[in-house]
Structure formats: structure tokens, C-alpha cells
User: What shape does this take?
Amino acid sequence: MRARAAYGAGAPRDTPWLDDSAGRVMRPYTASGGRTRPAVALDLLSLVTATGDRPRAPLGAEHTLALRLCAGAAAVTVAEVAGQLRLPAVVVKVLLSDLMECGAVTAQAPRFPGGGCIAADDQTLLRAVLDGLRRRL
Assistant: This one.
């Protein structure tokens, strides 16, 4: 079995390993200790920022990578962290929630142009997304 570091050029070196034929060697839910619900409610577009405080308790590799991503920019979204770590969003929400509880990161609700929020049942938005997807396919 030949393993390689995942995520291509520019990716952190200590990311989880992938096997060329089998895929991810470690299951994503092991990164969150099997937990599927974060202690703190986070949206995919929540803006997460590192505080500069170091967690007192030792963290797993995925926690450390998530913290690095948050520290490397002014603010990143939960979706961006999930994409960079190549982990499911729910797992990343648990990781970030852990980091919030120990004071290593803070999160802000998503901000939208005009200061408003987008309703989940906004038909105009949903149709625009559907039309955009149809054009790409």
C-alpha cells in the first residue's frame, strides 16, 4: 500500500493520509471523536478568526490544522475550513466548536450585503442557484 499526503501543492504536511486506491485511511468522524453535533451553533458561512490564545489541552491533528487555517487569514468561513481540510462540514463544525470552547477561535454570524440575511426559503435565491447549476451542467 502506497500512501501519499493529501491535498496537493501548498497543503499542510501533517494532513490526514490518503491511500491511492482505498481513499482516506482515517474515517472523518474519528477527527471529532465520533461526535456529530457541535456544542456551539455554526453556519457554513460563519466567519471564524483565531484569537491568538493557545489551547491548554492537547488537540488532535485536525484541530491544529483548523486552528492554523483560522490564524492564517483575517477570517475564514466554516465552509472554507471544511474544503481545505477535506472533511465533512459537520465534522469541521465540531472541531471549530471545540476550539471556540477553549478560546482559541471566535465566530461571527454570516454577513450579507445590505446588512440583511437570506431566508432559507427565499425562492428567488433558490431559483438563481438552480439556474446557475443547470448552466454548468
User: Anything to note?
Assistant: The mean pLDDT is 75. Residues 82 and 89 are 5 Å apart (CA to CA). The first strand starts at residue 3 and ends at 5.
